[in-house]
């Protein structure tokens, strides 16, 4: 009895498997007859049955139905494109290497005899064709200024082929659409790529991600990417400047100064770099170093406001510190007079830089107080009173 029962049960299994294969066969027939709703119904039945759920043909058929929907929409129905991708990806997962190779075979476009326009004459009609449609559609949308549509199409193409080039263009379209989080996502994939060579437009990706991190004040991550960018593009000075800005923002002043000094020592530092280094020395009350580097900055560009401001400020502070020594009651008259003269000569040295700042920005009220003090020390009463009047009109200190 047991043997007979087992044989009968086996027959049920065989019949069930045969029935499900017939369901799949019928689904294909309905698809060829363009009865897509019935084809999907039968294919999903096969997808839910243990005997056929791992058959890649099921998912290829479902994907092909979505491709038909996509084509009927003028290749703009991205929900159908996403669905087609998911079904094709499932088929490739369940299939072997040969199937995956066939599904990724590039479409062959040609013009057959009697045809007016080129058509597909070979290659994949599944995943690789979907990639082609998304690439062409994404490019067209980009040309028409529809960055959001371009991004969505490129994002699907990038799922199929996650190359550095595709990550770049997907991030580029996202940036154009104002989708900064998506831009950062795809550009970061490019930046941290394991490819042997650097993608030719990778500097755009670095710039976009660094600016994104700086705006979000994610300074540690920004610094990591800036230093990676310096390795990839050692001749781009922008990354050195960004590094200093991030170090300062992170209160890593010593490291920032060391980096700037290295740049200056290498020669050819621009006025902004010199000014920044002079400012950090001034901020750290290393006045002699600030004055030395500040003079180099002014020599590089005498009309650069910040360079004049930093140099004038460092000399002014040196003069003020000298003058403060004259308040020591223990010093004799000769020493007092000597200190006063030294302070006066230092204020005089600061004066042209403050006056240049005033020439460049006469409405900057931060200049009035130091200039009034300098003119007072120099005995230039009329100019002192002019600055004091401006200071009073601006609301005082």
Summary, kept brief:
This protein has helices at about 1-30, 35-45, 55-70, 80-95, 95-105, 125-145, 145-160, 165-175, 180-190, 200-215, 220-230, 235-250, 255-265, 270-285, 285-300, 305-325, 335-360, 370-375, 380-395; strands at about 110, 120. By secondary structure, the protein is mainly α. A two-stranded antiparallel ribbon has the order 1-2.
Structure report:
The model is unreliable at 6-18 (pLDDT under 50). The protein has a domain at 54-107 and 122-193: Serine Threonine Protein Phosphatase 5, Tetratricopeptide repeat (Alpha Horseshoe). It contains 19 helices and two strands. A two-stranded antiparallel sheet has the order 1-2. With 397 residues, the protein is mainly alpha-helical. It has helices at residues 2-32, 36-47, 56-72, 78-94, 97-103, 127-143, 147-160, 164-176, 180-191, 202-215, 219-232, 237-249, 253-265, 271-283, 287-300, 305-325, 333-360, 368-377, 381-393; strands at 108-110, 119-122. Helix 11 runs antiparallel to helix 12.
């Amino acid at each position: 009895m047991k043997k007979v029962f087992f044989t009968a049960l086996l027959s049920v299994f065989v019949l069930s498997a045969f029935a499900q294969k017939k369901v799949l066969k019928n689904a294909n027939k309905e698809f060829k007859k363009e009865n897509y709703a019935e084809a999907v119904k039968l294919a999903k039945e096969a997808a839910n049955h243990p005997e056929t759920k791992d058959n890649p043909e099921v998912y290829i058929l479902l994907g092909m139905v979505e491709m038909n929907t996509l084509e009927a929409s003028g290749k703009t129905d991205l929900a159908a494109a996403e669905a087609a991708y998911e079904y094709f990806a499932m088929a490739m997962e369940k299939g072997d290497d040969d199937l995956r190779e066939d599904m990724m075979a590039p479409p062959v476009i040609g013009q057959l005899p009697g045809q007016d326009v080129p058509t597909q004459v070979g290659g994949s009609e599944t995943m690789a064709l979907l990639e082609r449609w998304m690439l062409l559609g994404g490019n067209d949308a980009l040309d028409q200024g529809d960055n959001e549509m371009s991004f969505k199409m490129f994002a699907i193409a990038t799922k199929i082929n996650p190359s550095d080039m595709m990550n770049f263009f997907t991030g580029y379209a996202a940036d154009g659409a104002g989708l900064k989080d998506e831009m950062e996502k795809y550009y970061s994939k490019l930046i941290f790529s394991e490819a042997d060579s650097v993608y030719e437009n990778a500097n755009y990706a670095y710039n976009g991600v660094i600016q994104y991190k700086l705006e979000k004040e994610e300074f540690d991550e920004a610094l990591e990417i800036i230093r990676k960018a310096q390795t990839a593009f050692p001749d781009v000075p922008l990354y050195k400047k960004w590094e200093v800005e991030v170090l300062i923002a992170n209160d890593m002043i010593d490291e920032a100064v060391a980096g700037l000094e290295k740049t200056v020592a290498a020669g050819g530092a621009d006025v902004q770099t010199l000014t920044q280094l002079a400012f950090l020395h001034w901020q750290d009350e290393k006045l002699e170093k600030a004055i030395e580097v500040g003079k180099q900055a002014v020599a590089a560009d005498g009309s650069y406001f910040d360079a004049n401001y930093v140099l004038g400020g460092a000399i002014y502070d040196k003069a003020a510190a000298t003058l403060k020594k004259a308040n020591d009651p223990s010093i004799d008259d000769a020493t007092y007079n000597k200190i006063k003269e030294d302070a006066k000569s230092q204020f005089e040295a600061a004066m042209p830089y403050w006056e240049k700042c005033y020439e460049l920005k006469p409405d900057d009220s931060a200049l009035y107080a130091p200039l009034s003090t300098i003119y007072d020390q120099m005995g230039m009463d009329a100019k002192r009173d002019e600055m004091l009047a401006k200071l009073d009109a601006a609301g005082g200190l």
